[in-house]
């Protein structure tokens, strides 16, 4: 009988804690939320240098907000941190230019960023000749 009472008490405590957590999430959404639906977001501006933690400003009618954001330090500056691309494999090395090329198709534009549909990137050809690993013959 004592075990049942303890289990019932434990179940009631867990239900109360779950209900309170759900209430806090709703209150937080109301506090951060806005009636405005047409937000315009600017680019992520790093706090220092050209990558790392920063913020982006958004406006909607007469409201404005700042959101925390992060620009990875290995991002392609040419495309912007808010443009995400799906890249194909690198092409062969051009003997004339000494570079290889690949293209990327826009996968996602975050925060209504203005992104190019297709981008091209190049990199120098490797001067090293890759040798077969020891396990291959």
Automatic annotation (TrEMBL):
Gene Ontology biological process terms in this record: positive regulation of cell division
Residue ranges of every copy of the Pleiotrophin/Midkine C-terminal domain listed in the record: 80-135
The species this protein was found in: Atlantisia rogersi
Signal peptide: 1-21
Keyword Secreted: yes
Compartments in which it is found: Secreted
Annotated GO MF terms: growth factor activity; heparin binding
Any single Pfam family the record assigns to this protein: PTN_MK_N
Keyword field: Developmental protein, Disulfide bond, Growth factor, Heparin-binding, Mitogen, Secreted, Signal
Residues of the Pleiotrophin/Midkine N-terminal domain: 23-79
A Gene Ontology cellular-component term: extracellular region
Native organism taxonomy: Eukaryota, Metazoa, Chordata, Craniata, Vertebrata
Purpose of the protein: Secreted protein that functions as cytokine and growth factor and mediates its signal through cell-surface proteoglycan and non-proteoglycan receptors. Regulates many processes like inflammatory response, cell proliferation, cell adhesion, cell growth, cell survival, tissue regeneration, cell differentiation and cell migration.
Family: Belongs to the pleiotrophin family.
Record keyword Nucleus present: no
Entries under InterPro entries matching the protein: Midkine_heparin-bd_GF, PTN/MK_C_dom, PTN/MK_C_dom_sf, PTN/MK_diS_sf, PTN/MK_N_dom, PTN/MK_N_dom_sf, PTN_MK_heparin-bd_GF_CS
SMART domains given in the database record: PTN
Protein name in UniProt: Midkine
């Amino acid at each position: 009988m004592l075990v049942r009472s303890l289990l019932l008490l434990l179940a009631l405590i867990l239900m109360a804690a779950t209900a309170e957590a759900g209430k806090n999430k709703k209150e937080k959404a109301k506090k951060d939320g806005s009636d405005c639906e047409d937000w315009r977001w600017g680019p992520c501006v790093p706090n220092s240098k050209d990558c790392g933690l920063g913020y982006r400003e958004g406006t909607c009618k007469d409201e404005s907000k700042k959101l925390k954001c992060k620009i990875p330090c290995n991002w392609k500056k040419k495309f912007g941190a808010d443009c995400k691309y799906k890249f194909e494999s690198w092409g062969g090395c051009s003997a004339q230019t000494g570079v290889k090329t690949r293209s990327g198709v826009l996968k996602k534009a975050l925060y209504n960023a203005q992104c190019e549909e297709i981008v091209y990137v190049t990199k120098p050809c490797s001067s090293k000749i890759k040798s077969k690993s020891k396990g291959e013959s």
